[in-house]
Amino acid sequence: MPAKLPAPALNYLLDTLPTRERRRVVATCNNVALTRGEVLYQSMQRLDRVYFPTSGFVSLIVTVDDSAQLEVGLVGDEGVLGVALALGAAALGVQAVVQGSGRALCMSAAAFNKEISLGKSLACVTRRYAFVQLRQLSQMVACTRFHVVEARLARWLLMTRDRAHADTFYLTHELLGTMLGVRRVGITNAAGTLQKRNLIQYSRGNVTILDRRGLKATSCSCYQADRDAYASGVQ
Amino acid sequence: MPAKLPAPALNYLLDTLPTRERRRVVATCNNVALTRGEVLYQSMQRLDRVYFPTSGFVSLIVTVDDSAQLEVGLVGDEGVLGVALALGAAALGVQAVVQGSGRALCMSAAAFNKEISLGKSLACVTRRYAFVQLRQLSQMVACTRFHVVEARLARWLLMTRDRAHADTFYLTHELLGTMLGVRRVGITNAAGTLQKRNLIQYSRGNVTILDRRGLKATSCSCYQADRDAYASGVQ
DNA sequence: ACCTGTATGTACGCTGGCGCGCAGACGTCG
DNA sequence: CGACGTCTGCGCGCCAGCGTACATACAGGT
User: Fold this and answer.
1) N or C: which end of chain B has fewer CB within 10 A?
2) Largest alpha-carbon pair distance within chain B?
3) CB–CB of A49/A82 below 8 Å?
């Protein structure tokens, strides 16, 4: 996710592959639609396919005690869904839900495994991305523990902006509450503050980021830490 | 971490390797001491070696805002320190601190990379373990967010017991506070409650688990979830 | 124009954990 | 034996976020 480059042609990870390999990989993919609300994987489902989003963004959500939910990862065209396969695991352990509609290149697990077993760039890139997720998760644990809702919300909006490649996207307070693991009211208050400060503007689920810099100043350091982790992990 | 097997001969991950490969790997290792308080890796340090603990246990700790600390992983003879290398990353991103003295088989990064590049069992096992850590981290995010200190403490004591292979170990409230990211007083209160209920007994840092079952009932479901993740990830 | 569903705003008491400060209890070592 | 350092216990006011409930506002369909 370099600072000011245009959106990658398809998917940032695929873009880093050598041309020949990228062609070969893309040829085995189906270009599919990702529709907001769609569940790509259930928590314990066997992974039968891998997604390289080219637009839109997908939340990874854990459920504990059969009710409490919380987002533990956000994947867009900078990442891939299904890294578990590249690590030799069969199931993901978390639910993947489309939060912002878009499209993805979808590859069957069989094709992916075959390609991975060649040990070429795709295997390498995917594993490096898996490690980025490890670092981001470590950060997330601390963030969730120590940072207040307002800062976490600001961070989340910035992360989403980066993946949506737009300053406006659809997200209700209710959904944001689930993402951050807080009550809807907690979001309403925090978002209200951000709006009063002219950092964002929203109405019935349509959020617009007005002042990216100001929002970043309000967010916790974890936003930058995440970007750094990505930058250092995926060249 | 099977329920009632004796401690593995050396390290559980190494034990799963085919004999020939295990011999070869072990031959390249140094048997080193892990001393409580020792820092195995600094957060951004380049990984120059990998540890397979054979006893003792090591905490992975993140620091945010230059002060707040929190444990995001606990590794004993069921795991390995330095999985990042198997994913193609150079630095860990978290600090590794020995919490319980013991020993480990230590391998140079060069030897480890060479062995990994052969693509044999070690590569496979290490990557599967990396995925287990991914799952455990996801769980940790939710646990840290939703569960009260008492349950998290109970969970932590059980996790430590499994790695120490003993019901008694040394851990002050202060240290436990850092592990769980709470004040020392928070631990004192929670531990006091557990002691009153005859689940544990402690004095000046020496903690003894008296009633493992009772403790498990008090702990959150995350303890079992972690074990399940390990069991399903490392055969 | 009305009705219904969804989205947002506000209020109120509660609780878990915080920051701080201090007091006792135990060990160790000079 | 005494002094000091470490570990544990407790009290106080404070605050972020919780659970719940209710009120408003806007959008789209009939």
Assistant:
1) C
2) 54
3) yes
The proportion of chain A whose per-residue pLDDT surpasses 70, expressed as a percent, equals 96
Sheet with A49-53: list strands edge to edge: A30-34, A102-108, A49-53
Tokens of B199: 């689940």
Q: Taking CA atoms, what residue in A is nearest to B119? A: A119
Which position has the token pair 């999985």?
A: B83
pLDDT recorded at residue A8:
58
Q: What phi, psi does A221 have (nearest 5°)? A: -65, -15
The continuous run of DSSP H or E covering A186 comes out as helix A184-196
Computed over every residue of chain A, the mean pLDDT equals: 92
Chain A residues within 8 angstroms (CB to CB) of chain B:
60, 62-65, 68, 70, 72-73, 84, 86-89, 91, 93-94, 119, 124, 127-128, 130-131, 133-135, 137-147, 181, 220-222, 225, 229, 232-233
**For residue B155, pLDDT beyond 80:** yes
Contact between B91 and B47 (Cβ < 8 Å): yes
Distance CA A29, CA A83 (A): 16
Alpha-carbon span A145 to B182, nearest angstrom? 9
Q: In a 3-state reduction of DSSP, which class is residue B68?
A: strand
How much of chain A, in percent, has pLDDT values that exceed 90?
87
pLDDT in tens, B35-90: 999 999 998 889 999 999 999 999 999 999 988 999 999 999 999 999 999 999 88
A-chain residues near B140 (CB < 8 A): 137, 141
**Tens digit of pLDDT for each residue in B216-234?**
999 999 999 999 999 998 8
Distance from CA of A73 to the nearest CA of B (A): 9
Q: For position A90, what pLDDT does the model report?
A: 84
Residue with nearest Cα to nucleotide C9 C1': A188
Q: How confident is the model at residue A6 (pLDDT cuts 50, 70, 90)?
A: low
Question: Is A70:B145 a contact under the CB 8 Å cutoff?
Answer: yes
| Phi, then psi, of A137 in degrees rounded to 5 | -65, -40
Nearest-angstrom CA–CA distance, B199 and B208: 9
